[in-house]
Amino acid sequence: MWNRSVCISCKYKHTAMKQRILLFATLIIASCSSSPKGSNDLASAATTRQIIVMHPTVNNLKTFLFLTKSGIFPLPKDYRVVGVYHAGEIYNYNKSEAFIQDRGLTNVSLQKVNKKISPDSLYAKNSCSEIFAKLFNESQGVIFFGGPDIPPATYGDSTNLLTVVTDPERHYMELSFMFHLLGRSQNKTFKPLMDSKPDFRVLGICLGMQTMNVATGGTLYQDIPTEIYEKRSAEQVLAMDANLQHRNYNTNFANDTALIWGSFHQIAAVTGTKMERLTTSVEVKPFVLSSHHQCIKKLGENLVVTAWSMDGKVVEAVEHVRFPNVVGLQFHPEPTILYERNSKITIESSKPGEHSFVEMFPSEKGVTFHKAFWEMMGEMYK
Questions:
Q1: Contacts of 211 (CB under 8 A, 6+ apart)
Q2: Would 35 be classed as within a structural domain?
Q3: Residues 35, 30: Cα–Cα separation, whole Å
Q4: Within-domain flag for 50
Q5: Cβ–Cβ contacts within 10 Å for residue 362, how many?
Q6: Would you say 79 and 382 are in contact if contact means Cβ atoms under 8 Å apart?
Q7: Model confidence, pTM
């Protein structure tokens, strides 16, 4: 016999079950749609530690991942990576977004800064100050990678004919962020962000060290060969001792993609500094890879030199006297070719590469120094 009340009850139960199923399905879909694909939301990192990578091109991301995954840079595994860039930069960051998605990198995201920064407000509170403070407060450190020439107007100089400015918006943001972190003598009323967290880690590589110097009130030589060594041609520079060459000027003669972009030369660490502690003694002069034609002229506030070129004319590394985890390097410790035994290096077009950096500069000549540097950085982030 048909029981109407039972049927109605079943109908209500069936409806409730359908609602629960729909709710569950909705939650699954929402969860899937929030899977990492280069999210711009920094708040998602609230329960983990975070490291900032400035100028997060595909190459810089690949390099960072190589260093960390291989254990060369022993960054603890709970760190997230946030790549920060300005909307006005010339690089197409859609490539970086695609790289992150294609690799399924759940611990890497990008943060685009849209606010315009005027050149006359770099070293003061400006439109990006709140963004810089948020990045600082939610992170444990930052890496500033290499790049092109800084606009000389940012350090009070006119533009040398050999200076080529190609990415000013990047420089404006990175200079201002570095200023917000460290402060400078020209603005005594500004309170640096790192006053509240002095153990924050800052690493500046090549352009990154120059940015560190300019942001803290320093200046640059705009061309090493002409201003320091009074050389006017690539041939004259190549005739000099290899320790006085800071990029590979063989690239001036041909568009040979096989040539390495930098030059190898030794550096001299200063006694009692972090750079000296990376070697067994101050007598050890490791080989490094450089690619720059500019360098520090007047030193920025609270920076001290920790390594020089062999002739004592080019600053190769700096530290900060107030903030112990701030390090600047004029050379490049990050390229993968420094750690890959099978990467043969070609310096001249007429001489195909037969040896890798590992083979040319084994042990204290170069390899162990570079590995010791990244181990030091890893210790800072523990």
A1: 144, 150, 171, 174, 175, 178, 204
A2: no
A3: 9
A4: yes
A5: 12
A6: no
A7: 0.88
